[in-house]
Design goal:
Order of helices and strands: EEEEEEE
Helix content: under 10%
Number of helices: 0
Distance between the termini: 19 Å
Strand content: over 45%
Bound molecules: copper (II) ion
């Protein structure tokens, strides 16, 4: 994302937000870890941090290969653990 600094180990930021369906407010205090599995099978695990002003959680990853990436989010909020299935994205170029 523009204006955000990435280290040499990262090429892309993955970001997202969470909404409490009961009160329609953003959840800003969840603990989110993202595991990414790259096309060559190597992986990175990072904590996604809440970014005030951007209003999203974000983490930087190295996504420099073409092909299929699998992302596994692991969320913890108010003592609840939320496990999600893999999200699959493809990089074509
Ligand atoms: Cu961001």
């Amino acid at each position: 994302m523009e204006g955000m600094k990435m280290n040499a180990d990262s090429t892309h930021e993955l970001s997202g937000s969470l909404l409490d369906e009961e009160n329609k407010k953003s959840i800003t205090d969840a603990k989110i870890n993202l595991k990414i599995i790259r096309p060559d099978g190597s992986d990175q695990i990072k904590r996604a941090l809440w970014m005030e002003g951007m209003n999203h959680y974000g983490a930087d990853f190295k996504m420099d290969q073409k092909g299929k990436y699998q992302i596994l989010p692991s969320l913890k909020w108010e003592r609840r653990n939320i496990k999600q299935d893999f999200i699959t994205i493809y990089r074509n170029s």
